[in-house]
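Q: Hi! First time doing this. I have a protein sequence and I read that you can turn it into a structure. Is that right? Here it is:
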Amino acid sequence: MNTPISRPISAGPALVDPFGRHVTYLRVSVTDRCDFRCVYCMAEDMTFLPKKDLLTLEELERVSEAFIARGVRKIRLTGGEPLVRRNVMSLIESLGRHVKSGGLDELTLTTNGSQLARFAAQLHDHGVRRINVSVDTLDEQKFRTITRWGDLKKVKEGIAAAQKAGLAIKINAVALKGVNDDEIPEMIRWAHGESMDLTLIETMPLGDIDGDRTEQYLPLSVLRAGLMDQFTLEDIPYKTGGPARYMQVKETGGRLGFITPLTHNFCESCNRVRLTCTGTLFMCLGQEDAADLRAPLRASEGNELLDAAIDEAISRKPKGHDFIIDRRHNKPALSRHMSVTGG
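A: Yes, that's right. Below is the predicted 3D structure, encoded as structure tokens:
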């Protein structure tokens, strides 16, 4: 592997949207491909993007550095599954240099855990200190059903390797009605018993998934009310820079997060934009409006055109999204899959 060359970054004006929100958090989808086919995220027979349409790892680094220069302090790498992208560690090493130099506060990633046993030590070596791992059930057969291709034992081995390497872990679980809702108390005890936070997420209406989302959708307000029969939940001001609202579980001593894009959206404090692996910038997860950064990126060796495209995009960042799931809105709100935008 070639040693990455760190380019000096000169600071530019901060990125501020029309509503006065500073954009300080960039989520970068390095691939739309994944080695799972989770039922709420993908169809089983997915057609992925041609490799020629993807930004190279060097281009992903260049765009990321353009955002760092404009005040982005946190970058999260996502997918698909980011660790299945060939040579992705070279990108992580390059971006990790900005954490070590103070240019970034945090470099992190969201993963399904399948490749963690292989890469955990390298992630820590390159400056990653915290990761999110998606685990929706502790039942091995149910895990296979939800992910279609996943192996829970392999994921747990990856989690153990990540903790051994010194990575803090937050478990993400999508709450699915009639699938894992009865397991949530057990998952809370498991995660907190292993010194991990747990965040519960409402299913989002993105992409055709070969099913009816109204059959999956579980409002977290309902789930939270049920949890209060077993646990004492106390609001706390803890933040990670993302959309989760956290509570302390008195009985376990651990943190429990709620991400509620439908029942109580988090748009008023949104500091995020999302870059896809093709160079498309989405200013809002729940809107189709987007900006092409690939063309200006490739049109010049300098960043003047890229910076102008980023400025124009941020000037169009909307106030929020309008996700709805009910019997009259059981089709996807947007045609693109979550794996394209970044989980």
